[in-house]
Amino acid sequence: MPTFDETYILGEELGRGAYAVVHKCVHRQRGDTWAVKLVDKTKAGPKDISDIMHEVTMMKTVGHHPHVVQLLEFFDTPQTMYLVLELLEGGMLFDKIVSLKHYSEACASRLIKNFLLALEHIHSKGIMHRDLKPENLLLKRSTATYDTDISHLTDFCVADFGLSGRSPGQTCCGSPSYIAPEVINVGYFRTQRDPYDCKCDIWSVGVITYILLSGKMPFHGKHFKETFGKIVKGQWAFVGDVWDTSVSPAAKDFIRKLLTMDPKARPSATEALRHAWVVNVQSDVHMMASLEGLKQFNAERKLRGAMMVFRATTSFLGKLDRTPPFLKYLSHQNKLSTVVQAQSQTDASRVHHIDFSRALLRDNPGWKLQDCCTCGSQLVCRHIQNVHEYLFVGRKDMDVEPFINELELMKDEAEFDFADDPTNEGIQARAEEVEDILRAARAFREEYLKVPGSQMKANFMLDKPAGSAAPIGGTTGAAAKLLGKIGKA
């Protein structure tokens, strides 16, 4: 197979992050221009590799559609991954809308139609996006003039499949104000057992349509817990003069149907495409108040920065039928404890304790990672390996997120609560306690990744492929499995 350098000419840099950089690139034979994301595998950790591979898999499954960002090719070398992507130069859709001099329901309806066409295609592949929001609607080309011509809106793409997953799902993820009630009830409040499906994306389209026509959000609280409470109770309304004077009854009916609480009664993307507000040409009367509201919404969005992405999972240890093998013998009853219990895999009557906070003693003379476990092994035991998987790797195919995400969520909750009541010393103490646990977990990971394979015990619980040897070394289990399959994805 030809390499990236044999196929493309690397162009100017477009941006960079902690372990990745994005460039333009030109195909050597065809001459067409794309974007390429170069991921430095020496800087990206196992969780980063897992997330990237997950997104690559999702985008390959979705395939080509004119309103979905395209992954053209994927290359791998021992040091670098290359993701060749559609070049989107037009920026965020909402940034262009607020630059219009004329904005109407006709414009909004046409945009939503394209949005639904993209989702109809995505859902036909059995994929849920799960993070639909204005920031993830991007234009392909930059256009100099946006006076009355809205044809440029047909060039937008749905982007960012980092939180996407196969339907049905159980993980609560996305950006708080756009998450469907069933997603919250299944993955956060845990009041619903049945998994959710692709209808969760339709709810998000309803929220975005509400914003497009008013410049306001239907659900918004001081923090995500308050927002979640409003969503699951269906506490929203058409509030404001714009809904009485500017927005048509058909548009309001469309939003009501998409924001139907019961997902079974909520339309699919195909059904929503048949709604009169989408099918028929809508009024082209300028909606000055709506456009001004959108300008304010966009300005506030930029001040806040990117919306906080919410990730929460059910407490998976012992509560799911599809528990990954590396979690089957672990229990972590107190999430604010650094001690995880591990039942012996060879003697069910024996229980070992792994205290990952002992990694903070790493500067002491004679310290070694195995000191974190009570099993007495001379090599780094499978109990420590499994705890590392639990903390930092998880399992994408089972919607099991690493516990480090849940720790960060606990910290966010404490910080939100403290912002509401800065005099509460108990809340402040909880935030500090979670920060200490995070510090211990990160030290544990740093030391774990330094351990050579010769000092690790073989571990058959880390999801080795059937008939293969148990993975050993600093990248074990799911991480080793992913690293070994990068070139095959």
Give the helix/strand layout.
Elements lengths: L3 H4 E9 L3 E8 L5 E8 L5 H17 L8 E6 L3 E6 L5 E2 H5 L7 H20 L2 E2 L8 E3 L16 E3 L6 E2 L5 E3 L6 H7 L11 H16 L9 H10 L7 H5 L3 H10 L10 H4 L3 H4 L8 H17 L5 E3 L17 E2 L7 E5 L7 E5 L26 H11 L10 H18 L4 H24 L28 H9 L4
Antiparallel strand pairs: 1-2, 2-3, 3-5, 4-5, 6-8, 7-10, 8-9, 11-12, 13-14, 14-15
Helix pairs in contact: 2-16, 4-6, 5-7, 6-9, 6-12, 13-15, 14-15
Give the CATH architecture of the largest domain.
Answer: Orthogonal Bundle
What best-fitting shape do the alpha-carbon axes yield?
A: globular
Number of domains: 3
CATH class of the largest domain: Mainly Alpha
Measured by DSSP, the beta-strand proportion falls in 5-15%
The secondary structure category is: alpha+beta
Percent of residues in helices:
25-40%
Number of continuous helical runs: 16
> What do we call the CATH homologous superfamily of the largest domain?
Transferase(Phosphotransferase) domain 1
Please report the total strand number as a whole number: 15
Rounded mean pLDDT score? 85
Instruction: Give, in spatial order, the strands making up the sheet with the most strands.
Output: 1-2-3-5-4
CATH topology of the largest domain: Transferase(Phosphotransferase), domain 1
Our Rg estimate from Cα atoms comes to 25 Å
